[in-house]
TrEMBL record, chain A:
Enzyme class: transferase
Keywords: Acyltransferase, Amino-acid biosynthesis, Cytoplasm, Methionine biosynthesis, Transferase
Organism: Chelatococcus sambhunathii
Protein name: Homoserine O-acetyltransferase
Chain ranges of the AB hydrolase-1 domain: 26-335
Pathway the protein acts in: Amino-acid biosynthesis; L-methionine biosynthesis via de novo pathway; O-acetyl-L-homoserine from L-homoserine: step 1/1
Membrane spanning stretches: none
TrEMBL record, chain B:
Coiled-coil portions: none
Transmembrane segments: none
NCBIfam families membership: metW (TIGR02081)
UniProt-recorded name of the protein: Methionine biosynthesis protein MetW
Length: 357, 211
């Protein structure tokens, strides 16, 4: 791992959809975002909700499971079956907690590459993902250019901004301020820092939406009442919504995993790994890129995607880019955005022709 | 989508596109600024085997181009050309777009900097039909090829062939080839003087390089 520790043994949990063709040339790796997991296109085993990217992945969708063999794996440091801080530390027989080595985006990608090896796939037809998933896509293209035929980083960036690190730090401090966090050893003590993690999720959730989306969804409307109660109850619908989001999140996510995975994003700076010049990360690449951003996304604004596009241009790479008009904020990449489907679907169809699929 | 339905490129090739394609060396690196739906770029890749890239301001154009398998980024010629390194392309093409830029001179200068050669095609505002509209009717011309009213047109910087020749001179561009196409899309005879071109050419197509 980047931190200098060798993690062994470890395991990776993944889902696949569709059939790998005889030439093993139709595999698409989907990379999940911060709180996502491998259940990209099937009902979630814990929440029962639809897969997190069913708008994009499935039969007849842009990432068409009738044509492509789709792989999605839980990241290292995650909590849905891949080794992470809630896994047992073989040296102590207890959960790792914060003794787990700090994970980077590159570590996540290394683990995925080992999975792809294990599946007997040499070159991926496409690596796709949004947000932190898009960071992994860029890392894949930089680390294993010859193994990535096409790449779709969506609503992502090659660097995590100071503002985004700041938001993450607030979330982590919320977790660590919860007395039930117990310096990361809560699993052994049979408790959960549910309040802290819920607050972290509430704060983060605001950053996934736009002001306009919040206004449209909730405005200043009151929750099940005619007038303010002059108390600190959840008078406003937006408060009630955030509280619900926070509570629902702690049911399916491990608090220490949240610390690790946010940290991985903070450390991401692809240019820094290549002498400070982002274009150096992509020199000589043959990968075809399709970059997309959303107008109202202020967490991963268009400027971050444009910086990637400029670097790819400077490296002479084949790159397409579209900024999609949406008022739904960062979350737009997970939602029903016909322009996203049209562009990515067209890109993949053309790439498939070039790949002889 | 199967491979046969995916190529909407079997339409007849526009005469100005044909002319531009004939100016491009096979296998060249080409940037098409304002590439629209990618028809010209697709033609260049198909027939001249170029390594092509495009910039297009409209989302629809980008999507259509990407679906053709082209590498096109959404962007604005007025602002985004500054980010391209010197001499990064063999040809930079501006096809029927210069009249819609805010800073045509700067755009042309960037093209000459980025590309070893620049190809510019544009509607000639000196064409007799346009002069007739303005001269006799006293109204801003609205024609089949230029269908917008003055108040809603994206074409904010019209010029005539002679105006463009003067601009080339000002920015230090040398004309390697200049062709005027008449209303039927046929080249106006080479031997005729400039003023005839300016009157009968509906489109001007220029191959330029830095002096």
């Amino acid at each position: 791992m980047d931190c200098g520790v060798a993690l062994a043994p470890w395991q990776i949990a993944y889902q696949t959809y569709g059939e790998l063709n005889a030439a093993r040339s139709n595999a698409v790796l989907v990379c999940h975002a911060l709180t996502g997991d491998q259940h990209v296109a099937n009902p979630h085993p814990v929440t029962g909700k639809p897969g997190w990217w069913e708008t994009m992945v499935g039969p007849g969708r842009p990432i068409d499971t009738d044509r492509f063999f789709v792989i999605c794996a839980n990241v290292v440091g995650g909590c849905m079956g891949t080794t992470g801080p809630a896994s047992l530390n073989p040296a102590t027989g207890k959960p790792w907690g914060i003794d787990f080595p700090v994970v980077t985006i590159r570590d996540m990608v290394r683990a995925q590459a080992m999975l792809v090896d294990h599946l007997g796939i040499d070159t991926l037809f496409c690596v796709a993902g949004g947000s932190m998933g898009g960071m992994q896509v860029l890392q894949w293209a930089a680390s294993y250019p010859e193994r990535v035929f096409s790449a779709m980083p969506i609503a992502a960036a090659a660097i995590h901004s100071a503002q985004n690190i700041a938001f993450h730090e607030v979330g982590r401090q919320a977790v660590m301020a919860d007395p039930d966090w117990r310096h990361g050893r809560y699993l052994e003590e049979g408790v959960k820092p549910a309040k802290g993690l819920a607050v972290a999720r509430m704060g983060a959730h605001i950053t996934y939406l736009s002001e306009k989306a919040l206004h449209r969804k909730f405005g200043r409307r009151l929750q099940d009442r005619e007038a303010p109660t002059f108390s600190f109850d959840a008078d406003f619908q937006v408060e009630s919504y955030l509280r619900y989001q926070g509570e629902a999140f702690v049911e399916r996510f491990d608090a220490n995993s949240y610390l690790y995975v946010t940290r991985a994003m903070d450390y991401f700076d692809l240019a820094a790994d290549h002498g400070g010049v982002l274009a150096n990360a992509f020199r000589g690449t043959k990968t075809r890129f399709c970059v997309a951003s959303f107008t109202s996304d202020w967490l991963f604004p268009t400027s971050g995607s444009r910086a990637v596009v400029h670097a790819l241009n400077a490296a002479g790479a084949s790159v397409s880019f579209v900024e999609i008009e949406s008022d739904k904020g960062h979350d737009a990449f997970l939602l029903d955005e016909p322009e996203l489907f049209a562009t990515t679907g067209g890109f993949l169809a053309a790439a498939a022709r070039a790949r002889g699929l | 989508m199967d491979a046969t339905t995916a190529f909407p490129d079997q339409l007849p090739v526009r005469s100005d596109h044909r002319l531009v394609a004939d100016m491009v060396e096979p296998g060249a690196r080409v940037l098409d600024v304002g590439c629209g739906d990618g028809a010209l770029l697709a033609l260049l890749m198909r027939e001249r085997g170029v390594d092509g890239r495009g910039i297009e301001i409209s989302r629809e154009g980008v999507s259509q181009s990407v679906a053709r398998g082209l590498s096109v980024i959404q962007g604005d010629a007025d602002t985004d050309l500054a980010d391209y390194p010197d001499d990064s392309f063999d040809y930079v093409i501006l096809s029927q777009t210069i009249q819609a830029t805010r800073q045509p001179r700067q755009v042309l200068e960037h093209m000459l900097r980025i590309g070893r050669r620049a190809i510019v095609s544009f509607p000639n505002f000196g064409h007799w039909r346009i002069r007739l509209e303005l001269g006799l009717k006293g109204r801003m011309p609205v024609t089949e090829k230029l269908p917008y009213s003055w108040y809603d047109t994206p074409n904010i910087h019209f010029c005539t062939i002679r105006d463009f020749v003067a601009l080339c001179d000002e920015v230090g561009a040398q004309m390697e080839r200049a062709v005027a196409l008449n209303a039927s899309g046929e080249p106006v005879r080479v031997s005729v003087p400039w003023w005839v071109w300016n009157l009968f050419g509906e489109n001007g197509v220029f191959l330029l390089r830095r002096r």
